[in-house]
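<context>
A single protein, sequence plus fold
<sample>
Here is the protein in question:
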Amino acid sequence: MDFVLATNNMKKLAEMQRILSPLGINVVTAKMLGTSLEDVVEDGETFEDNAKIKAHAACAQFGMPAIADDSGLCVDYLDGAPGIYSARFSGGHGDDEANNDLLLKKLDGVPIEERGAEYVCAICCCFPDGREIVVRGVCRGTIGFERDGNEGFGYDPLFLVDGRAFGRYTAEEKDRISHRGNALRKFAEELEKTL
């Protein structure tokens, strides 16, 4: 069964495919379908709101089941920031280096015991007949003092789990514990019930 993924992020596509393909789900992008995603305004107040906005827009555009995720980093010391603004924390959208630089600057001088954080991922899947699945996955960790590793994307070089940066985890290791991996496993369970 084909599902369109409402993203242009190929790293998210790879994560989705790794976890959902064993269920017989083929995840495709708008580009793979020979077109592009229509722009949507992500003006929700939560990760779930924004995932729903993107999934419903893609479902309407393509007339097929659509999956969208909205994810980000919530830092305790920053009262949950950058949160839903994670991708555009430093101003531009998707500038990982600038976002990481700003996070390090805002946490300058903050001791390790006050650098708790969680990665959050909300996934929404909607079907042309109106059915909807919404799940959330979380991964707790700590923000490191410097970048470590070249794996993953976003804040992965700074996000530590058990003292090790996600930037050093293999894709398979990260899938087992990450916010997106946790959300996708919940989603897979709900999807099996729905289908």
Q: What stands out?
A: Strands lie at 2-5, 26-28, 66-75, 116-126, 132-143, 159-161, 164-165.
